[in-house]
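Slide 14.
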Amino acid sequence: MTDDVLPVHMGSKGVSPKEDFPAIRQQAYVHTSFPQQLVIETTAACNQKCIFCGRTYMDRPKKTMSRAVFQKIVEEVAAENPYTEVWPTFMGEAMLLGDRLFDMIEYAREVGCKKITLNTNGTRLNEKTIPRIVSCGIDRLIVSCDALTPATHAIVRPGLKTAGGLDTIFRGVNMLLEHMERTGSDTPLLEMQYSIFDENEHEVEEFTKYWIERGTVVKTRPKLYWSGTVPGGKARVRTDNEQRVPCLWVMDTCGIHWNGNVVMCAPDCEGKYVAGNVEMQTVKEIWNGPLKWIRELHTRRRFSELPEICRNCPDWKMKRANAYFPNEHLKSKYESYVRKGRVFMEGYASLIDSGEEIQFATEKPDPSLGL
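Slide 15: predicted structure.
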C-alpha cells in the first residue's frame, strides 16, 4: 500500500538505500476541507501473506467493495476535490478483481477524478492486464515486491502460487515497460517499491540499481507496523510533547474499508477506530467531523488524549520514503505528480547524481498545479 507515499525524500543513485531516513521536522499543517489522499479498499482479498503486512494478521472479514459504494466515493471526490489522490487499494491485491477493477478506475476518471495511483504486488501483470493498465486512467503504478531474488521474495512475500514467483513479476514489469515504449504511452508513471526490514535489507542496493538501469523510479521505505497490528515498533511510541509531532497519515489521508467504514487512517488496517460509513454519510462529513477532532488533537500536540489506536501507534513518523531516479526528466515528472493539488506536504531532499550536499526545503502550494 501506500504509500503511502508522501512526503518523499529523494536521493541520488550514489546514496545507499539503507541509510537512515531523514528526521521528521515540525510542520505547520493545516486542516483541509477534504482529504488529500483517499485509500479505498476495493477488495481485501490477496494472493500473498506478506510477513510485514497488516492484512496477514488482521481478523476482520476480507471481502470486496460493491460498485455502488465505490462509485459514490469517487463521485464525491470529483465534486469536492478532483485532485485528491485516489488509491483504489488498501488491504488486498486489487488486481485480483481483473476487468472489474479497470472498469471502476475508468469510471473514476470519467466522473472527474484527476489523480489515481494503484499499488500492486505485480503478480497479475501479463499480456491481458497490461493494455488496460495503460488505457484505464491510472496515473501512477506502484509495484511492491521487496526483493531481488526469488529466495528472499519467498521469505518476505509467501503464498504466491503463480508459477515462476518473482521471475514472473519481473517479467510482467518489463513487459509493461516494453508495451509503453512500443505504444508511446507516458502513463502510468512506474514506481518499484521496496520496504526495508531485517529479512531483505541485504538486497536493497542491487534492487535499486537493477530497476534504475531499466528506467523506473525506485522507492525504498521503512517498515510499517500497521498501527500495531504487525509485531514490533513499540520503541517508536511516544506521547510526550518533546519527541512526537503531528502524524501525516492522520493529517492528509483517509482510509475506507470494503464495507464503507471510514477508519482512523491508512495504517488502521483492522478498523480499530471507525469514524463513520460512506453509505450513510459523505466522506466530507466524516473528515470534518470525528476525524477533524483527531487532527485537532495532533496539531495541538495533545497526544495523550488521542484514542488508544492513535495514541499507541508506532507509525506516526513512517509516512516518508527515499525515491531514486534514472534521469532528471523522470524526477521532474514524478515531483509534479506528487505535488499536484496538495495544500501541504512534508519537506524533502531531491538530488540526482549531483554529488551536492542534500538540502531540505518545504514545498509550498503551486497555483499552476491546480490548487
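Speaker note: Residues 1-26, 226-230, 347-371 have pLDDT under 50 and may be disordered.
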